[in-house]
Amino acid sequence: xxxxxxxxxxxxxxxxxxxxxxxxxxxxxxxxxxxxxxxxxxxxxxxxxxxxxxxxxxxxxxxxxxxxxxxxxxxxxxxxxxxxxxxxxxxxxxxxxxxxxxxxxxxxxxxxxxxxxxxxxxxxxxxxxxxxxxxxxxxxxxxxxxxxxxxxxxxxxxxxxxxxxxxxxxxxxxxxxxxxxxxxxxxxxx
Length: 190
Prior knowledge:
This protein is mostly helical and 190 residues long. It contains 7 helices and no strands. Helix 2 (10-29) packs antiparallel against helix 3 (35-58), helix 4 (64-82) packs antiparallel against helix 5 and helix 6 runs antiparallel to helix 7 (145-174). It is elongated.
């Protein structure tokens, strides 16, 4: 059985999902924005996502996979934000590596979560999609900034929706079952 903290922190997953989806929408609306802005926006997303994963880990989700997702996100953000001179190919490599690492760790965490919540698949789907995204990034290294923006936007929106779905599932599972009222005239135990 999962701890109360696992269910009570559903809102952190919701926050991660909303931020991921919002980042995707912004990247889709402004695909031709300067590469520096895209680098900064991606770095901010990776930092917030990594910090939220660490916050989940500190709040009771004692899973090394989640802690490592947080560390990988924060390190990716640091590299992205403090080395803005990275070329588009360098950004491609950082995003692809982050996506592959995140996907593998999310799949491992999803397997662990399925032991607690029967039939739960949202995090597994997110991990699979993260790996597919990373492979696609590696397969298309010369696609250009516009395609990069579209790929990142699509990836962020899909992962955002999957995290939102997981958070809502955890919120639902974590609620106590309602107590049915006793019918009138039923004798009460003393």
